[in-house]
Amino acid sequence: MADTKKTATLSYEGKSYELPILSPTVGPEVIDIRKLYAQADVFTYDPGFTSTASCESAITFIDGDKGELLYRGYPIEQLAEKSHFLEVCYLLLNGSLPTEAQMENFEGRITRHTMVHEQMHYFFRGFRRDSHPMATMVGVVGAMSAFYHDSLDINDPWQREVAAMRMIAKLPTIAAMAYKYSIGQPFVYPKNNLDYASNFLHMCFSVPAEDYTVSPVLAKAMDRIMMLHADHEQNASTSTVRLAGSSGANPFACVAAGIACLWGPAHGGANQAALEMLREIGTVDRIPEFVAKAKDKNDPFRLMGFGHRVYKNFDPRAKVMKESADEVLDLLGIHNNETLRVAKALERIALEDEYFVSKKLYPNVDFYSGIILEAMGFPTAMFTPIFALSRTVGWISQWKEMIGDPALKIGRPRQLYIGETTRDYVPVAQR
Ligand code: CMC
Fold first, then answer.
1. How far away, in angstroms, is 306 Cα from ligand 1 center?
2. Model confidence over 257-301: pLDDT tens digits?
3. CA-CA distance, 346 to 294, in Å (whole number)?
4. Sheet containing 30-31: which strands, arranged edge to edge?
5. Whose CA is nearest to atom 9 of ligand 1?
6. Are 37 and 43 in contact (CB under 8 A)?
7. Ligand 1 centre from 100 Cα, in Å?
């Protein structure tokens, strides 16, 4: 972050204040208001943080108008085509692409951490079988801090590293266990001769009674889903992880908080909600009815999988995801499915509709990911856990960046208080 020597002038109560302007490497300049309250006794108001940079970061950049997403400077389209998920993990965590030797070492370390503590199996058994896998994941990931005491000291860089490796390695195992538990099948241990995505598919879909071979096309599609979801700068769940971490909470607890936030239908829960909406629409002829509901100011209904806080152009992840969806559906010979027909028609209608065009509401990543995941055989309840395991590396990278920053302060927003002023307590008999 560079001080530009430029300032913005704020005039308030007859006085003027010079606020420094900071310049990013790319993106809009930032007015530094850190000293505003001390100098002018005034707060700023920005619910939803639509105009507020909450931190400095060198990890991910989004240009919402261009529809551009960069991980450490590399465009997502190039990474999706040429890289693979574990290489993207290395890149996000370390800032540069690995050499061959670095990649081998990193993969080896992740692979050694894929199993979970055996006692965790009993922990799973405490959940109801019909629990949503996200509920199970919030609990189990939070409980990792009870199982891995030796990586809780956030002031020790080695322990921070081990915690990061553990979470990246174990989240697929935990998500697959949550799935197996929900369908009453035995847990499948990780197989370390498989790549990251294939291992996850194997843990989800194999059973001890039969051999299971992972399709390379499906593994590639899964790996791509993971890459596309790996990080997305200061979104709600990442900001949650940072806020939790700013108090010094351990990384497992912080990631559990991120998972809880991701679950909401306005965020990661949208992939499940989008597919359920497509099913509810059911047939192409019912689309106008749902589009009208989405436009109706008095109806809370929204077209799930459309719109984004930052992208006011096509979500670049959605473009790649759409290509992947076509590949997967071709491989599986799914061409005539009604949900798919509804999805394609809805996409076309929304992209031409004045309401969606004028508000720049394009399909987002969640619109297409559900279609692929369903075709692969995942139930809708597993869509958000897959988002969570993919985003874990982003959460950890952002958490590590924050903890390593000597200027770290506990996150503590202020408020615009609109409640009662001081009043005296009234005994119950007089109320
Ligand atoms: N359907 C219908 N109208 C919409 C939609 C939608 N999906 N999204 C936004 N709008 C309208 C909204 O009603 C508002 O209209 P007006 O200006 O007349 O009041 C306008 O567009 C701006 O919406 P907003 O709620 O102020 O925008 P936001 O930046 O706060 O919300 C969003 C972004 C993603 C929460 C929202 O677009 C949404 O709810 N989309 C559906 C859920 C979804 O697909 N979420 C996944 C996001 S991508 C993956 C991720 O980040 O997790």
1. 7
2. 999 999 999 999 999 899 999 999 999 999 999 999 999 999 999
3. 12
4. 2-12, 15-23, 30-31
5. 307
6. yes
7. 42
CA 191 – ligand 1 centroid, Å? 40
Give the pLDDT band (50/70/90) at residue 66.
very high
Residues labelled catalytic: 308, 366
Ligand 1: which atom is nearest the Cα of residue 235?
51
Q: Are 249 and 155 in contact (CB under 8 A)?
A: no
**Which atom of ligand 1 has the smallest separation from the CA of 232?**
51
Residue located nearest, by CA, to atom 52 of ligand 1:
267
- Residues 152 and 159: their CA atoms lie apart, in Å, by 7
Q: Which residues line the pocket of ligand 1, CB cutoff 6 A?
A: 235, 266-268, 270, 294, 302-309, 359, 361, 364-366
Residue 410 burial by Cβ neighbours in a 10 Å radius (0-12, 13-18, 19+): exposed
Give the torsion through C-alpha atoms of 40, 46, 52, 55, to 10 deg. 80
Output the CA 309–ligand 1 centroid distance in Å: 7
Using CA atoms of 291, 297, 302, 306 in order, give the dihedral in degrees to the nearest 10. Answer: 80
- Residue 5 belongs to what H/E stretch? strand 2-12
Closest listed residue to residue 179, CA positions, set 22, 424, 380, 370: 380
Question: Which residues on adjacent β-strands are paired with residue 8?
Answer: 19
Share of the chain above pLDDT 70, in %: 100
* Nearest alpha carbon, ligand 1 atom 41: 304
Whether 365 and 229 have beta carbons less than 8 Å apart is answered as yes
pLDDT digits (tens, 9 = 90+) for 291-330: 999 999 999 999 999 999 999 888 899 989 888 888 888 8
* CA of 346 relative to ligand 1 center, distance in Å: 16
CA dihedral sign, ordered 119, 125, 130, 135 = negative
Residue nearest to atom 22 of ligand 1 (CA): 359
- Please give the DSSP secondary-structure letter assigned to residue 363: B
SS3 for 263-274, per residue? Answer: CCCCCCCHHHHH
- Do residues 372 and 235 lie in contact, with contact meaning Cβ atoms separated by under 8 Å? no
What sign does the CA torsion over 256, 220, 70, 367 have? negative
